[in-house]
Amino acid sequence: MGFLDKVKNLVSQNADKVDTAIDKVGDAVDKKTQGKYSQHVNKAQEAAKKAVDNTQAGTQQPPVPPTQQSGQPPTSPPAPPQAPTPPQS
Fold this sequence. Notes:
Helix content: 55-70%
Number of strands: 0
Order of helices and strands: HHH
Largest sheet: none
Radius of gyration: 21 Å
Strand content: under 5%
Oligomer: single chain
C-alpha cells in the first residue's frame, strides 16, 4: 500500500474530523486576513470538503484548471495564428 493510499484510507475513516479541521483552518485564515479573502477561503473549503467526499466514495475527480471555474465545460484553446498571405499583383 502506497503513501497516498494510506492517506486516502485515513481521510475516509476520519471524514468528520477532517471536515472540522477544514472549517477551523478556514476560520483562522479569515480571522488573520480580517475577512478580506473570505470568498476565496469559502471556495477552498468547499473544494476540500468535496475532495474528502470523493475520497469517501472512492471516486477521484480531476482537478479543475485555474482558468476554468468548477462546473463549467472546458474551453477550447485559441486557434494558432495564420501566416500572412503574400499580396497579389
